[in-house]
């Protein structure tokens, strides 16, 4: 014992070296045999003595043990026994680093450090070696890996559960009191803001409310336009302050709005101030239209005052019969879009989107649903690996099956977090109805670089040749067929547009480094991203707009979540296309689900 140094413990005291602590720790954490544990312990003690080490701490001893585990070919055991964290230099750099277009404060620094630890934990403890390598190498990208062990991904909330019950009690949070149902329009809007502020701690991706103009219509009866506008401005302003309130960047928040009561909602019991049921939503069609007009106006006015506002994203549900008869209203919508570029147009004549919107609709107001996890596929990488169409589909199938294994792990983790109340909001119930229904969540497979795959396999871009276009459709249909075939009552797998620019950047960077000879064949312009996102055409192609919309619509027919076509306002102007003409094409002649406009 005289040859062994004292040990400085993390508790702050100094203790005598005790080899039995090493032995017990090894058995507990990596569950190897007693003989192997004795061997590792003996080798550790010998190394400490032979090297004449004068200073020891718990982390230092662990480093020595991990080194010996590797030398003895216990590599999986080393992964389980290692510490997670980061080098001091990396943390100091994080403290000093200037962030572009982001809040910079102590909370952000702690958040970034925690993200590093959580990602490392996911690789070492949660994912298999094959799954971890697939993500690190760039075959796949597990969106929100830093929250893989703790949070669901996206969530769409049914606003009626707030309007009817108020802000519910949250499990094991003694300082939080239940808030009764809103008694007026202003209270209802503040409840929306409070709820989205609270849920930022338990969800990683986008969140929002559907049919906001319908469900809030009863709350504006009898109010003046000025009162409505003031409260809606409060909604927009408070939502855009969330980053300051919680100290970090927040994902996109959205609401969907419509100027008319949708036929599927006309007979639903209408929730009015105080959470009281009074008539049906069909009784509030005038208020719905008025609220929609005010919301459109407020978006335009707020953008004029503060051009940097990012959210709420407004998803406008468009029904052709109403739009054609109310051109004045949609002229104001077009005016707002040209000013803010913030709103989306949703083709609500699209059967797939409409079915999705009402899939979980219920009178109870508990139709909350979302995406538990999203994983992105690097399609060009699969083409580099296969170099022919048949092998490409084999590689694609293998990678999708790998994603399904990761989805299964995510489900088990979140189920465990709910049962242990580590997700207090998701674990809570309101009037015996779960706030978050784990069984209603979907699992999304998205992808990047369809255009580049087709270019590599056929020598033509998606838009250049009918055969190349049909191959692109075939690939997307193949992913969808696998998702449909494997979906069951327990799990629903869907194909989604890629929501992550991080995946796009990672894949491009890794493939440019490791598959440069293949990337050169794509003739990528200097300073351009290597890959196109999801199923979209190459940037700035020369393609007649009607043809572009029609062809992109073929992919929107297949992709269930997030399919969105971006159209340049300058392109419309160059082609002398009016808003009404575009709407005619969008709703009547195309299969597009969603339109977003850029300057």
How would you explain this protein's 3D organization?
- A hairpin with a 5-residue loop joins strand 1 (7-8) and strand 2 (14-15).
- The protein starts with 6 loop residues before the first strand and ends with a strand.
- Helix 17 crosses helix 18, helix 17 runs parallel beside helix 20 (450-458) and helix 18 runs parallel beside helix 21 (466-486).
- Strands 4, 5, 6, 7, 10, 11, 12, 15, 16, 17 and 18 form an eleven-stranded mixed sheet that branches. A three-stranded mixed sheet has the order 2-1-3. The protein has a two-stranded antiparallel sheet with strand order 8-9.
- The protein is built from 26 helices and 18 strands.
- The model has no long low-confidence stretch (mean pLDDT 88).
- It is an alpha/beta fold.
How does the SSE layout of this entry go?
Layout: E1 7-8, E2 14-15, H1 19-30, H2 34-50, E3 56-57, H3 58-71, H4 75-81, H5 88-96, H6 106-126, H7 129-137, E4 140-142, E5 154-157, H8 160-165, H9 185-199, E6 207-209, H10 212-215, H11 225-240, H12 242-246, E7 253-257, E8 269-272, E9 276-280, H13 285-305, E10 313-318, H14 320-325, H15 327-340, E11 344-347, H16 351-357, E12 369-378, H17 379-386, H18 389-419, H19 424-427, E13 429-430, E14 433-434, E15 442-448, H20 450-458, H21 466-486, E16 492-495, H22 501-514, H23 516-520, H24 545-556, E17 565-568, H25 569-574, H26 579-589, E18 594-598
Parallel strand pairs: 1-3, 5-6, 6-7, 7-10, 10-11, 12-15, 15-16, 17-18
Antiparallel strand pairs: 1-2, 4-12, 5-12, 8-9, 11-18, 13-14
Helix pairs in contact: 1-2, 2-3, 3-4, 9-11, 11-13, 13-15, 17-18, 17-20, 18-21, 20-21
């Amino acid at each position: 014992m005289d040859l062994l140094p004292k040990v400085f413990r993390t508790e702050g005291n100094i203790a005598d070296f005790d080899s039995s602590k090493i032995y017990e720790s090894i058995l507990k954490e990596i569950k190897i045999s007693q003989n192997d544990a004795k061997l590792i312990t003996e080798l550790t003690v010998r190394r400490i003595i032979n090297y004449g080490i004068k200073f020891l701490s718990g982390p230092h001893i662990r480093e020595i043990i991990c080194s010996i585990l590797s030398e003895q070919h216990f590599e999986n055991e080393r992964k389980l026994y290692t510490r997670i964290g980061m080098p001091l230099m990396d943390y100091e750099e994080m403290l000093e680093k200037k962030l572009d277009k982001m809040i910079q404060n102590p909370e952000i620094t702690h958040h970034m450090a925690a993200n590093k630890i959580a990602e490392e934990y996911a690789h070492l403890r949660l994912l298999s070696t094959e799954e971890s390598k697939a993500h690190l190498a760039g075959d796949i990208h597990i969106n929100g890996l830093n929250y893989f062990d703790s949070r669901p991904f996206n969530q769409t909330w049914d606003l009626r559960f707030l309007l009817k019950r108020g802000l519910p009690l949250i499990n094991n949070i003694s300082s939080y009191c239940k808030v009764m149902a809103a008694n007026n329009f202003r209270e209802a809007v503040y409840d929306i803001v409070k709820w989205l502020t609270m849920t930022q701690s338990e969800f990683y991706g986008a969140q929002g409310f559907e049919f906001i103009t319908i469900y809030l219509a009863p709350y504006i009866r009898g109010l003046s336009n000025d009162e409505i506008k003031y409260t809606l401005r409060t909604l927009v302003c408070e939502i855009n302050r969330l980053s300051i309130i919680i100290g970090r960047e927040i994902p996109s928040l959205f609401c969907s709005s419509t100027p008319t009561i949708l036929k599927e909602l006309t007979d639903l019991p209408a929730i009015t101030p105080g959470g009281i049921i009074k008539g049906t939503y069909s009784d509030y069609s005038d208020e719905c239209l008025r609220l929609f007009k005010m919301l459109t106006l407020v978006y335009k006015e707020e953008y004029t005052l503060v051009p940097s506002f990012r959210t709420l994203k407004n998803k406008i549900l468009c029904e052709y019969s109403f739009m054609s008869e109310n051109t004045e209203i949609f002229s104001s919508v077009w005016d707002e879009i040209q000013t803010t570029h913030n709103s989306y147009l949703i083709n609500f004549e699209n059967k797939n989107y409409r079915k999705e919107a009402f899939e979980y609709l219920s009178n109870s107001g508990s139709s909350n649903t979302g995406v538990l996890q999203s994983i992105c596929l690097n399609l060009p990488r699969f083409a580099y690996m296969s170099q022919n169409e048949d092998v490409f589909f084999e590689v694609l199938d293998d990678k999708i099956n790998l994603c399904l294994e990761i989805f299964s792990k995510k489900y088990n983790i979140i189920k465990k977090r709910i049962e242990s109340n580590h997700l207090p909001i998701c674990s809570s119930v309101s009037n015996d109805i779960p706030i978050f229904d784990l069984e209603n969540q979907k699992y999304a497979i998205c992808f990047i670089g369809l255009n580049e795959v087709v270019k590599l396999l056929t020598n033509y871009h998606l838009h250049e040749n009918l055969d190349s276009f049909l191959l692109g459709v075939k690939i997307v249909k193949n992913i969808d067929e696998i998702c449909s075939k494997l979906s069951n009552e327990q799990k629903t797998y869907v194909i989604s547009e890629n929501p992550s620019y991080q995946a796009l950047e990672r894949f491009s960077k890794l493939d440019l480094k490791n598959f440069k000879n293949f990337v050169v064949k794509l003739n990528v312009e200097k300073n351009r991203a290597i890959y196109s996102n999801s199923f979209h055409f190459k940037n700035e192609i020369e393609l007649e707009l009607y043809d572009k919309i029609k062809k992109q619509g073929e992919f929107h027919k297949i992709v269930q979540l997030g399919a969105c076509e971006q159209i340049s306002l300058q392109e419309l102007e160059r082609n002398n296309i009016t808003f009404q003409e575009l709407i005619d094409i969008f709703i009547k002649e195309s299969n597009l689900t969603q339109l977003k406009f850029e300057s």
